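Record 1 of the preview.
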Amino acid sequence: MIEVSDFGNMDSTSPMRRRTGLDAVSAVKMPEGLTSAVDAWAEAHHLTRSDAICKLVELGLRAAPAAPAPPHLTTGSDATRIEEIAVHEIDRLLDPALPQDERERRIRRLTEGPPEFSHERIDLPKHEP
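->
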């Protein structure tokens, strides 16, 4: 049996145990219910808890959609789609009793910003004076 030295006791003369595996050790903090579910999954698949967590993480990463592109790399169609979603959400939040032209003015003001700053916007076409 290999003794593990006490890290708090620097005067210890017992040999320190060396890591034999190549994989990093990671501690995982999980709620009790999740731990029980992992243990049940591990038992059903004849795995240890550690191997089950690795397998479940691998499965989750494979099933997860690709990470979204950073905001500065969005395409024009993405920007258009984002604006459409914003317009839809603003329209949904506006008072339905407002006249249509007032609804459109408010939506335009919120999506394009105040007219006095429109010349500063780089994403809007420039109007010739």
